[in-house]
Amino acid sequence: MKKIILLFLLALSLIIPQVSFAKDYGSIDGKINDLMQVVSDSGELGAAATSVTINNLNGNTDKEYEMIVRGIDGVAGNNGTSFIMRFNNDSGATNYGFQVLSGSNTTASAARNTGIGAIYRFGSSSITGSSCLGIAHIYAKSGYVRTVILKSAENIYTTTVSNIMLWGDSWNNTADNITEINVLALDADGIGIGSRMILLKKVDATSGKRYGAMNIKGKVKNVWQEVTKGTLTGAATSVTISNLTGNTDVIYRLRVRHVEGVNSSSIFLEPNGDTTTANYGIQRLYGSDTTVAAYRSTSYGYHWWLGYAVTAGDIGYYEALIYAKSGYVRTAIIESVIGVATTTITAIELHGSVWNNTADEITSLVINSEDANALGIGTFYVLEKLNLN
Amino acid sequence: MKKLLYLIIAGALIFSCVDDIFATNYKQMGKVYPQGNFSSDCFTKIYETTLLANATSVTISNLAGNTTVEYRLNTKVVNGYDGSCYAGLTINNDTGANYGIQHLRAINTTVTASRYADAFLYVGAASALGSTSLSETLIHAKSGYVRTGIQGRISHIVTTTVGQLYLVGQSWNNTTDEVTSLVISADQASGLGIGTYICLWGKEYKQ
Q1: Hey, which of A246, A314, B111, B133 has its CA 20 to 30 A from A364?
Q2: For testing the chain A interface, which of B40, B151, B173 should be mutated: the one with the most A CBs within 10 Å?
Q3: What is the edge-to-edge ordering of all strands in the sheet holding A344-355?
Q4: Which among A111, A208, A218 has CB closest to B32?
């Protein structure tokens, strides 16, 4: 009888934890249901290409995609090119449309096209070797026109960001399942050496092995995962996130919920703590009340500017997408909600930012401020990396 | 013998709760379908629906904004109403004029900006039946300060015409209440048409 009871306890000990407690895991690599995961990473191209195709997709199952493109202009002679995207390689000349909002130097403008041959665009360039950075959110399921929201910073060289753009795109095909996504240059070999295309999808792994609750102590491959986060319990002038390996990590996403600690302070980001103004450039596009404006600086004193606040206690909310790997100028797209007090928001901004250092590995990111203790109590920051390795 | 069995039970308990957590290399898992929480300091999908019938509102409940802290709300709204209709987001079903908006807007070649307070936050708008909108909203939900959002949105989409494009800063002036629900509503009955898609992602933190 005792043996039976003991065996019963043994069986329970194997079953109960699976259903009642989260099981701890180290680092895992798999297709995890209900995560956004990398389905394709081109790596930095070793040879120029005119197009890169990602196939074996199932848009009707995946529903959502996120495409990140860091493009390098591969066309010789400063003849320029554009980085565009198609679904199922549909090159019909009038099957796509866009509405765009752009900032170029001091000009803010908009344009619409209702009959064009691709999703526009991750970048357009006029200088050989210049960079662009773009991120597209794609709703892929058939039944309705397919839609895309795309942000891009383009024609970036040394400390110049030529344009910052926000695009809304449509593909008028309502029927065909998206099975491939094509990133193309408008010119032969326009996708230069160093370009990289990364596609994430919403994973449906309901046909996979069932697990109970899972607590991952280590890394999950191919997802955006926190590197660090913190909430300030005392005001600070800066916060340093160290021990980074930008060349391995490749790409970061930083968010800051800023509580202004003093009055009228700018908050900015400095890779490796570099405080040399001449190393930074920015292209801003912003709206403040009824004012629309754009601004460019090729020697920007607020470095990778995140935002500012006017009054102590004001809130800012900033998100930066950073292509961190060395070899080319480092680029970022930054969205900023500025100076929030109750229901009043001082400004909304979209920035393209550049750090002209092409050589040094990013080992730290410093969230810095214009004034002592401007990062007030309650300021929250979180850094994520895309686990490509 | 009894001691051995106790040892086996203890070992089984430990190993069934822990799976090589000190390994530095990735463990190959294949397709993984968790039946409980997947806690990994990542955004995890916590709600998804695609409407099979028109609706006037969709409520995402049982949220814990103070624990989750950050959400990403993605919507594709199909206009189910034969005429002008918008879709808006309220937090905890708060329908007071407690939301702040600062937007940048592009319509054809015109760029405008506007700042105002309203009783909801837009996620879509259309003037014709079947027209669609797409939005992506990042929300900092933890109480203690006004809640903030950053949104990209396109609306009034018909075939290859994207009617309107927005970049929006958002606030909800409530600093105290935990976010426990998000409500997406249309201003017209059955305005959320068949095919409307709503997906909410939230942070699940390691224990």
Answers
A1: A314
A2: B40
A3: A224-231, A380-386, A251-259, A315-323, A330-341, A344-355, A280-288, A291-297
A4: A208
Report the side by side order of strands in the sheet with A160-171: A36-41, A196-202, A64-72, A131-139, A146-157, A160-171, A96-104, A107-116
CATH code for position B113: 2.60.120
Query: Could you read off the pLDDT of A162-218 as tens digits, one per residue?
Result: 999 999 999 999 999 999 999 999 999 999 999 999 999 999 999 999 999 999 999
Residues B1 and B81 both lie in one domain: no
A97: nearest CA partner in chain B: B160
Q: Do B102 and B182 have their domain in common?
A: yes
8 Å CB contact of B39 and A145 = no
Please give the interface size between A and B, counted as residue pairs whose CB atoms are below 8 Å apart.
Answer: 361
Hey, is A226 helix, strand or coil?
Answer: strand
Q: Look at residue B130 and tell me if it is in a domain.
A: yes
pLDDT > 90? residue A11: no
In total, how many domains does chain B have? 2
- ipTM value for the complex: 0.94
Residues B66 and B15 reside in one and the same domain: no
- Give the domain extent around B17: 1-32
Query: Which pair of structure tokens corresponds to residue A373?
Result: 């203790």
> Given the structure tokens 């019938």, which residue do they identify?
B53
- Partner residue facing A96 (CB), from B2, B160, B169: B160
Identify the closest residue of chain A to B158 by CA–CA distance: A145
Q: Do A218 and B24 touch (CB under 8 A)?
A: yes
**Averaged in consecutive runs of 10 residues, what is the pLDDT profile of chain B (207 residues)?**
64 58 82 96 97 98 98 98 98 98 98 98 98 98 98 98 98 98 98 98 95
Does one domain contain both B62 and B157?
A: yes
Co-location of B27 and B52 in the same domain: no
